[in-house]
Amino acid sequence: MTIVESIKCVLQQNNDGLTSKQIYDEIIRQGLYSFGAENPVGVVNAQLRRRCIGLDFPTAYPIKFFEIAGYEGKKIKFRLISTENTATIITAPKTTDISELLPEEKIKAALQEHLQNIRQQVFDSVLNNSPEFFEHLVVDLLLKMGYGYDKNSGIVTGKPHDGGIDGIISEDKLGLDLIYIQAKRFANGNKVTRHDLQAFIGAMEHINKGVFITTSSFTRSAIQFIEKQQQKNIKLIDGNLLADILVKYEVGVAAAQTFKLYKLDTEYFNF
Asked: Which 8-state DSSP code applies to residue 204?
């Protein structure tokens, strides 16, 4: 039985929906699947989100089996797709048997699966923390990406009535070139609007560079507004891109193990 099959088995017994932690506990209690991951609840949560209606992102699967039943605090409760949404369950395209793949191809496929799980775990951890934590995280991220003259050149300014500026990064020691940051830890369905961006630009005053980072996404009119913006240089980072660059620049994650891939040195053997 696969992870997804074990999840479906548990949810067949619980029509009202369960959180990813509750589903994991039931899988273990019933002995449906044996996990080898360090964070098995995160693995279950990633599988649920990638196959859930309404949670569409680049690493999500086109085949949906689950839907949101409600919330328990901040945690999503999942259930099997109801009768009216059964059309969303489609036949999976035929894929290559993994036994037919070369060892290098198997490793690449496993790595992609691992990265997808890690991105989802990182993203969920961001959502489960406070807005104040998120403000510190985005400053750390931009510093890791190379903005700022050193690792201490970024500050968090976010506080009540902060005017919309949550962080500032100095690109030179004298502070002559500054980047203003706004961080919005929004739920997936709560998009950043054009009005939000206009308020941010107003708060920037004479500063020309800004980064607006959100865990959700931007409305079409918000994106079009920034594309037409000529006086300010504003970069937008949505939840999908945020998850990618957090992993890429190792903010909130650390390399657990490295491997070497070998190839035959044909020149050596052509003596």
From this structure: H
- Contact by Cβ (8 Å): 134, 126: yes
pTM for the model stands at 0.66
The two structure tokens encoding residue 64:
């949906």
Q: Which positions ≥6 away from 46 have C-beta within 8 Å?
A: 116, 117, 120, 121
Give strand pairing partners of 155.
168
Mapped onto helix, strand or coil, the DSSP state of residue 61 is: coil
Nearest C-alpha neighbor of 62 from the set 22, 100, 105, 91: 91
pLDDT band at 94 (very low <50, low <70, confident <90, very high): very low
CA–CA dist 171, 229 (Å, integer): 22
Whole-number Å distance between alpha carbons of 138 and 182 = 9
In the chain, DSSP assigns E strands to 66-72, 75-80, 154-156, 167-170, 178-184, 209-214, 233-237
Q: What is the pLDDT of residues 140-159, one digit of tens each?
A: 999 999 999 998 899 999 66
**210 Cβ neighbours under 8 A, 6+ residues apart:** 179, 180, 181, 182, 200, 201, 204, 232, 233, 234, 235
Helix (H, G, I), strand (E, B) or coil at 92: coil
Does the pLDDT of residue 87 top 70, yes or no? Answer: no
Question: What does the block give as tokens for 95?
Answer: 């894929």
For residues 235 and 245, what is the distance between their CA atoms, to the nearest angstrom? 14
Q: For residue 103, count other CB atoms closer than 10 A to its CB.
A: 8
- Region label for 127, one of left (φ > 0), alpha (ψ between -120 and 50) or beta (otherwise): alpha
